[in-house]
Design goal:
Elements (H helix, E strand, L loop, with lengths): L1 H36 L2 H32 L3 H34 L7 H27 L2 H25 L8 H33 L9
Helix pairs in contact: 1-2, 1-3, 1-4, 2-3, 3-6, 4-5, 4-6, 5-6
Main location: cytoplasm
Subunit structure: Homodimer.
Pfam family, one: PhoU
Length: 219
């Protein structure tokens, strides 16, 4: 009976993480739309929705702590519980960063936050990071190690786009001034950190499933 209850708790942790993953994907995509398409109400919804993501993290932590206290899981079960706590933290940080993007868009309204000269790069960066985030949430749900290992190479493209933005800001095409450069630098950092969290989510899943760190595995 105890074993069934432990299984029930770990299954519930998986469900909560899936809900949290969906919430942060929606928040990030909405923040990008608010930023690139100048939708202040959409930005407000992202900001207002952040406490719900925080609440999901708290629920994961409470259930995980309860599971450890009551059942003292070991081996693979313990990895599942610990990974749930760590993954919830990663997802909450993504939610916070999505909120920061939405706040930047809202702060500049009705003026655009992204200069036209940088728009194409931000559109591509938004799409790349959104795809990585969605893939990491799929990994959380499916525990697909092969898919998880793809995130590292996906992140290389984000790093390249990040460098392209700085090349633009320090080049002759940039005539938008220092305040716009500061805004874009912060936005680029937010995007880069979200991509890093997506990679970390995948790495935690790999360790949870295999008991080995990703660098020890080969495709």
């Amino acid at each position: 009976m105890a074993r069934q209850t432990l299984d029930g708790n770990t299954a519930q942790l998986q469900t909560l993480l899936g809900e949290m993953g969906d919430a942060v994907v929606v928040a990030f995509r909405a923040a990008c739309a608010a930023l690139l398409d100048r939708h202040p109400r959409l930005a407000e919804r992202v900001i207002e929705g952040d406490p719900a993501i925080d609440d999901l993290r708290a629920r994961v932590e409470r259930l995980a702590t309860e599971t450890i206290t009551i059942f003292a899981p070991v081996g693979p079960d313990m990895r599942v519980v610990v990974a749930a706590i760590q993954s919830a933290h990663e997802l909450e940080r993504v939610g916070d960063l999505a909120k920061h993007i939405a706040e930047a868009a809202h702060r500049r309204d009705p003026d655009p936050c992204v200069p036209e000269v940088a728009r194409d790069l931000l559109v591509e960066l938004s799409g790349q990071v959104a795809a990585m985030l969605a893939k990491s949430v799929t990994v959380l749900r499916t525990r697909n190690v092969i898919l998880a290992l793809e995130l590292e190479s996906d992140d290389d493209r984000v790093d390249a786009l990040h460098r392209d933005l700085f090349t633009l800001m320090f080049g002759e095409r940039w005539t938008c001034g220092i305040p716009a450069a500061v805004d874009l630098t912060l936005l680029a950092r937010f995007y880069e950190r979200i991509a890093d969290h997506a990679v970390s989510l995948a790495e935690r899943t790999v360790y949870m499933v295999t008991g080995r760190h990703p660098e020890a595995l080969q495709l």
